[in-house]
Amino acid sequence: MKFSLTTLGVSSASPTTDRYPSAHILNICGRLLLIDCGEGCQMLMKRHGISLMKTGRIFLSHVHGDHVFGIFGLMSTLSMSGRTEPLHIYAPETFRGILDFFRGQFLERECYPIIFHPLTSGEPETVWEDNGITVTAFPLLHRVPTYGYLFREREPELNVRKEAVSALSLSVEEILALKEGRDVRREDGTVLETQSLTYRPYEPRSFAYCSDTAVFDALPGIVRGVDLLYHEATFGDDCADKAAEMFHSTARQAGETALKAGAGKLVIGHFSSRYKDPSVLLAQTREVFPQTEIGWEGKEFEVPLKKNEK
Amino acid sequence: MKFSLTTLGVSSASPTTDRYPSAHILNICGRLLLIDCGEGCQMLMKRHGISLMKTGRIFLSHVHGDHVFGIFGLMSTLSMSGRTEPLHIYAPETFRGILDFFRGQFLERECYPIIFHPLTSGEPETVWEDNGITVTAFPLLHRVPTYGYLFREREPELNVRKEAVSALSLSVEEILALKEGRDVRREDGTVLETQSLTYRPYEPRSFAYCSDTAVFDALPGIVRGVDLLYHEATFGDDCADKAAEMFHSTARQAGETALKAGAGKLVIGHFSSRYKDPSVLLAQTREVFPQTEIGWEGKEFEVPLKKNEK
Known about the structure:
The structure is a homodimer. By secondary structure, the first copy, chain A, is an alpha/beta fold. The first copy, chain A, contains 11 helices and 20 strands. Chain A folds into 2 domains: about 5-155 and about 200-305, Ribonuclease Z/Hydroxyacylglutathione hydrolase-like (Metallo-beta-lactamase, Chain A, 4-Layer Sandwich), CATH 3.60.15.10; about 160-200, no CATH class. The first copy, chain A, has helices spanning about 40-45, 65-70, 70-80, 95-105, 160-165, 170-180, 195, 220, 240-245, 250-260, 280-290; strands spanning about 5-10, 25-30, 30-35, 55-60, 85-90, 115-120, 125-130, 135-140, 145-155, 160, 185, 190, 200, 200-205, 205-210, 230, 265-270, 290-295, 300, 305. The first copy, chain A, has a 7-stranded mixed beta sheet. In chain A, β8 (about 135-140) and β9 (about 145-155) form a beta hairpin.
């Protein structure tokens, strides 16, 4: 029941000696979801023991080099490794031409299906769901079309309280109805109420990824209540003007968005190379939102399972 | 008077946890020449203290991803760093479309001139020379158009022996003539012979880069007598068939080429990921050519200055 984000690349456009461009792995119960794929991503994954072959979906925020230059090498390696499973790529429509060009020029043998899911909507939209999670893409505010992603576990199935099963001699049909949230009226007129006889075994967890973006009013509402929020913090207070000019955020602004959204925890990344030690950025964010942590290569941020009382 | 090769990336197509794709820096008396530019090259350069800004020329062997995917990030970083010096790129003509596509899609601000030198010849040809070195590109034998590069110091100017200057009371004109290799006949009939009165202060050094290539007869002749030879050694004896099929070389074949060429020293690289420890490849090469060393990230191979007796 793992739900964790591993930050791999946390530099902004220019990498440093110890920070690679944007790349993150979200592990939701064994689903390995790659979020942005900056140069060197495949090497970072190998270094930190993350399986390239088991990574099924890549979510790209936008078509700036520091978020996509790693995908070419990664896809080549998958091809040479004999992958046959499909690879799903979610990205702004602007990535289509680049993907087509790369496939034509570089993939000698394309042995696995590459399925491109272009993002074009100006509104949040569900782009993928399976029996356990839903993924929503939503537009951010940057110099080129850019999307954030919201990953939510689905509501788990209701459990019927064990003591009720024996005390009320529940039949299989009654249990199934209660699990589906339906009250049951027995022939003797008594009503078995789902609300009192069942419980949710745990609360669904959520994570939102916001990079790169300027501040905008709608964002806190879109990511409201997420357990874990990743938000770019390219600049500090000293470069607030530059942040605005470049459609980026300051560390403080990242904290303000987390606060307004009521996020459980905030992770900041995408640091400009001018900050050799990004702890100065962390301090500025924490002035606004104390539950902030800093991303670095290989750091894993777990969202623990929130079990409910039976 | 430095002349050294630093191997940065020594993996073949699929990188490993400790080997990046092809990238090498040749430092000839302060000229920083980048040879191939696999993914992660700019990060390796930063990690090993090699200045991106001072790197003026990039020599690409061929358009396979593991030799070129790093150039996009490197060029982007140069652009954001405010470079104004030209960047010269030598590559097979097949790279032109990729370079143009990249510039159109990714370089937001192109503040430095990018000068592309396409290689098309089927014969060795000088592609660059300055007052100290000449660079010759020559075709290799691979699945796509591929070139090796031969870097040679020019012959240094002759020095006139100090004892001759005073003993023969040489005039400035006589010294200049002797330095240019011309004998001088004095009015009294005596001849000042350049051969006995001058010496070369040092022997010009040379380096050749051969990756990727199958064995072919002409190669040893092209790189004859180089002080330092880099040759790919993708496979070991166990995969000789695969090497031939893929137009690659085995470690042993790399040694055989070095032997036939009369190279001073051989460095092998471009190791397949199947060899966790490439020392097995080194052993096979050394059976043929003992003066072989193995390339690894950040390893510098110096060619010492060979001073002549005065």
